[in-house]
Design goal:
6 strands; Heat Shock Protein 90; two-stranded antiparallel ribbon; single chain; four-stranded antiparallel sheet; globular; 168 residues; 5 helices; alpha+beta
């Protein structure tokens, strides 16, 4: 089901995800029905490569939109998955939950691209001016405290610190 609102787009799908929603960006593809997935790939309807979420998050970053929210809803039987895509908001209009989600997803994209996330790359992703690095540092601190990212090398000085997702 696709629902369109003034400030967001919600896409709901029956069935709980096969992988943790926090791992959508890096986990190899899995299908409930491998035969159907293979047929759809041969018909060029889908790629069966597992890069769909990566492409969506990368496009959202390119346009500096709020990070999408992927949610497993187990309150319904047998459960469902919902993806919420948000309309443009300035970073100052995003709440801390939105900023932390954007930071985590940015760290994931950097990692799967063979890079590590930095304060500078996050400023660029969020469209924050270099002189406002302290605001981005607070988001980084909150995301580290939330256990979603970690320092690649904790012994590095704060100025040169790089970060990776918690699972790296």
């Amino acid at each position: 089901m696709v629902e369109i609102f003034a400030d967001r787009l919600e896409i709901s799908n029956p069935g709980e995800p096969l992988v943790d929603t926090l791992r959508f960006i890096d986990t190899p593809p899995r299908s409930r029905n491998e035969d159907l997935a293979a047929l759809m790939r041969r018909m060029n309807i889908c790629e069966e490569g597992g890069t769909g979420i990566d492409k969506v998050v990368a496009a959202i970053e390119a346009f500096q939109l709020p990070a999408p929210d992927f949610t497993a809803i187990s309150t319904m039987q047998p459960g469902s998955t919902k993806a919420t895509l948000y309309a443009y908001r300035k970073v100052t209009d995003m709440d801390s939950k939105d900023r932390i989600r954007a930071y985590y997803q940015h760290a994931c994209l950097c990692y799967v691209s063979g890079k590590r996330m930095t304060n500078a790359s996050l400023r660029e992703r969020l469209g924050v001016e270099p002189q406002n690095y302290a605001a981005v540092s607070r988001i980084i601190r909150d995301t580290v405290a939330g256990g979603l990212v970690k320092a690649f090398d904790p012994k590095t000085s704060k100025r040169f610190m790089t970060y990776v997702p918690f699972w790296a």
